[in-house]
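Continuing from the previous page...

OK, I double-checked the sequence for hydroxymethylbilane synthase against my notes and this is the correct one:
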Amino acid sequence: MQRQLRIATRSSALAMAQTNYVISELKQECEIIKVSNEVGDVNLQDPLYKMPTVGVFTKQVEQYLLEQKADVAVHSLKDLPTIIDNELYLAAYTKFEQRGDVVLLNKKYNYKSLGELPDGFNVGTSSLRRIATIRNRYPKLNLINIRGNLNTRIQKLDEGQYDAIILAKAGILRLGLADRISFDLEEKEFLYAPAQAALGIQCRKDDLETIDRLKVLNDVDAQKRCVAERMFLNQLEGGCRLPIAVYSECREDGTVYIKGRVLAVDGTQVIEDEAIDHFEKVGQILCQKIQVLGGVELINSLKQQK
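Thanks. Re-ran it with the corrected sequence; updated structure tokens here:
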């Protein structure tokens, strides 16, 4: 008889929805262990990109694995640093929810695109990538930091603290809140965060039984695209504290296409390029192309601003 898996996850409603999805795909009973002291959940004032550490939503959950208090950890893969502890293993990449970003409006508005929003419109986001992109394309919008879980952010929107907020579509769908979406941001134009909309399933590297049991969760398309995107991010030495965006596709010949973008925080400079190759190579190839175009200088200047 197989032992019951202990799954560690954050205690937010979204994390619980993600974990329940994983359990449904595993088709077995599991114990859920809620971790409530992640830095990103405790500090709800500072923008994420100003926090002095990486893994602000994943480090404590990983610690449960390292201390053998849990067998499996469920993460939003975009939150997981590209370099993980040597004792841990990324055992599965789940299939994507829809990958782009969406705009939610205060219910008194009925706009259908960012271009329709009036000057000074108060838009809430916690993402430096989104801030830089909007500043580049719609500089007259008023961008304001917003923190808290998804339900808290929507409540702030409904209370009138913001006219609109921008969120990842995957989270909205996982919580069954599709009716709150006012309009989508086109993926090929606005791109998204590396590994956005996939879940990363971790376990200990020496736990071969659990690794085998988690194989059922792995989606090859998501794995290839996420490996390429995370390699691009890793080679650029980036993370949520730098405005880096991607778009990717798996091609019929087995290669992966990826577009990458690096932006100045004020939106005044954008460097982007694209590449097609094997999924384990294409991220590095794209990084090299971005570096030739001035990406190194732009990223170094961004780091000096922190």
